[in-house]
Specification:
elongated; OB fold (Dihydrolipoamide Acetyltransferase, E2P); alpha+beta; five-stranded mixed barrel; 39% helix
Amino acid sequence: MFDWLSPELLWFSCGVVLIFLEFAVPGVILVFFGAGAILTSLLTWAGILPGMVGQVTVFGVSSLVLLFGLRKYASRFFKGDSTEEKDDEYAGKLARVTREIYPGSIEGKVFFEGTDWRADSSVTIPAGSSVRITGKRNITLIVEPVN
């Protein structure tokens, strides 16, 4: 049925997909599994890994070796800041609370620029209130009530 789908093409395709998915998923992890899949593809193409057991073993081992060996180094170049940002582009703008915000809870929501966002605050803020954005932590807006 799929005679054109060789193991080396399958491994290579999976590797490319994983590397491109790295742009959508934070953490600098998928790129190493993608590199492991491409290495497996090359070794399979060269005839070194004819069987599936060997291919899966090389994929797993090479991906983990690359991950644990290079992730710390690669993270320096692809570094994201997960700390609270005080000077971000949203600071000072107003939003409306759509789900009550409790300090330290992930349940709070605000409506801002056409989208519902997670929100956190140092005080409880009821739904329907207006808030001012003071910062952002990952995808959570840090807000304070408008006086």
